[in-house]
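Researcher: Quick one. two chains, 407 residues in total.
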Amino acid sequence: MAARVRALETILTQKGLLDPAAIDVIVETYETRVGPRNGARVVAKAWSEPEFADWLKRDATAAIASLGYTGRQGEHMQAVFNTQDQHNMVVCTLCSCYPWSVLGLPPVWYKSPPYRSRAVIDPRGVLAEFGVTLPVETKIRVWDSTAELRYLVVPLRPAGTEGWSQEKLADLVTRDSMIGTGLAKEAA
Amino acid sequence: MNGAQDLGGQMGFGPVAPEKDEPIFHAEWEKRALGVTLAAGAMGHWNIDESRHTRESLHPVDYYSSSYYEIWIKALETLLKRHGFVTQDELLVGDTLGGTAKPKRVLKAEEVPAMLARGGPCDRPVRGPARFKAGDRVRTMNFHPTGHTRLPRYARDKVGVIDAVREGFVFPDTNAHGRGENPQWVYTVVFGGREIWGEGADPTLTISIDAWESYLEPA
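Model:
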């Protein structure tokens, strides 16, 4: 595959269809600037500021854009809030739709058949494979991203974090907790 | 199409394998695959729906034995051939043999940050009001189009409730095939686990999809 991609890049570059330097900038963007730290900051702010949380509920695209996170695969955002009663989990059964602007590029498992096939029919089994066991009475809502809306899960705020700064709170917000295959880390 | 991509509820793929401290890319070629795919898309000769349909049109054996970046590259080769930018012979020898269609634009490095920050919004004004409102009961269509659709098989001919009226969005089923954007209202529709999976479904489970208006009828 390495040779095949190199050949494709070479042909397109020779034909003047591709600027290899543009590829470098794309890669650098997702390696250094756009990743799950963006989403963690959104969640930490929602935990800390009720007004921001309300805004995030009503108009996630605008609320998230106010932090500077916009663009490709985050054009139309929805935030879904976990509660004591309901856990949210996001999947794209049809391809690999994922909120790039807040989480970066999706992990391999998110794009692979085991997750895409089972998240909708056996979410508790999938969660167990991530080491997560929810109370039997907790409702599970699975959001299949079949259109252009991209979902960000806002996990429950861990106990014992009262008064924490948003930067410190963001350290507890894992990527998986914002997909719904994990929970936020406990306060150490 | 009822293709390999339509995975919801399929069985036999084994456990999910989360990778601890997963790197963003697993090989150098994956970086180039991402970049080539985005840059070629930026030429503006196909839309995201045509891209998705090209990926899901891979033979199921090929689809299931390819990683996602491999799926992207295989589909990209097809798109580039279809739109006159490369030939099969060129791909076979890995070298330029002839000319190319004229691109609408070529993405330059300095344009990348703005292009990524802008993205490709798919919301469009829709003529006429939304047919459904939150709380309405709806039944999804039972259809099996040979072309592109975003109504997964597991959610066809099922009764659900409108959870939210979203916006007007480009209709993938026509847009993927060059038949226009034809924007429609999109709704989040929620189904009980039992409606989808029958007896034995997790009683605490609800599943939602985002559905274009023409996928739905009143129930």
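Chain A has two domains: 1-33, 35-179.
Researcher: Thanks, that's what I needed.
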